[in-house]
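Pasting as-is:
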Amino acid sequence: MSKLPNKWLVVVSVLFGTFTVILNNSMLNPILPRFIEVFDSNAVSVGWILTIFMVSMGMTMPLTGFLGDRFGKKKVYLAGLCLFIFGSISGLLSNTLAMVIVSRAIQGMAGGLMMPIAMALIFNSFPKNERGLAVGIYGISVMVAPAIGPTIGGTLVQYLDWPWLFAINIPFGLTGLFLSAKFLKPTKKDPMKKFDLAGFLLVTFGIGAILYSLGRGRTVELLLDPVNLSLIGAGLAAIVAFVFYENRQEDPLLNLSVFKVPTYTASILVTSSASIGLFSGIFLLPLLIQNVYGLNEVMTGLLFLPAAAASGLFMSLGGRLLDKKGPRYVVPPGLAIMALASIGLGFLELSTPFWWILALNTIRGVGMGMGNMPATTSGMNSIPEHLVAQGSAMNNIIRQMSSSLGIVFFSIYYEVRRAQLAAAPDVDQQLATLQTLNEAFLVSAAVLLLAIPFSFILKGVQDDKTKA
């Protein structure tokens, strides 16, 4: 490994940690029914295992810009990784549901520190014209882990037991900690930097309230619950107040001036749409495979593996093309490929063979690899270097909210539309489910198609050279 250039050792180091964080979260998604059985609990209580992670992660992310500037990005990343290992050990040793939930909260805080800082560390190590490939390699953790996590989680629980879902993190986390301590370079720090307490309270309450509401609002009744609606309203009000407050501060917690850069703003819109497309597939395809075609969890897992491989491969190729040609040659085609494959999934029939669904999902993976991380890289390249950590934090926060919103939307759409179709006389339940899922994939494709015009706003380092 010492033969690798130092900048690539940075990518390898942060890849270990971030991949483990995202993989752990996706492994737990299909295992919740097991926790209901183990702890003799209910779906609402067990749902906190996922909700608390999402909320604590989202509430921690706004801090990363300040902490990175104040203490140095390497120290913050290492602290986050140590915290994640501690949360994994706590989860491994848990004997109550409450302790599992507390452990997940600790893991969420750790992820909130690690994810934005990891991107900033990579950007600090590479020049602008090489960041596409670097972020493409790193992006494997962001894109591939959610795809393979359910398969790994299901296998662990089937052959071992649920504590292994936490135990598996520890060796990977310790490896990442060793590599990061050895190969990450210390960054500049500003011991005099002041903490924006009022801004922190406003943004964390706003993000926390919205993510919590989305996390529990997986049905129409829960989403429209007065408490839920009140939390969403209060969260939105807090974020609006945060924007007005931050724009008047000389040293804000999050510098919102980055949104004045068209490429950065367009990249946020594009990656949000791509995240909705990604998580729509992660949510809808298991329902399709198991409820419509009657296949088991193993076949569901197999459906995602080629897509994950394609996403990782084309993320690297897309990053290289981004560095050479610019985002317009990568992102719009990527979104178009993903949208077309989603349209294909919108016209499935009961007689459709498994291999065709596998092929369409693999093509979706190709489009995701080309469309997501290159858009993020071009957006981050467009903002001043000293705001990279803050820009990365905001990118991750909005991506998290978009993913949550997408899952909530498709959960409710599936519930309401399926019930509507199934209520008609002489309607086959299997056909009603298939039609609902077909429509949902077409909606997902529409979201991706709407993002394509914005992807042409993206500019790369090649455009800067032309201006110069």
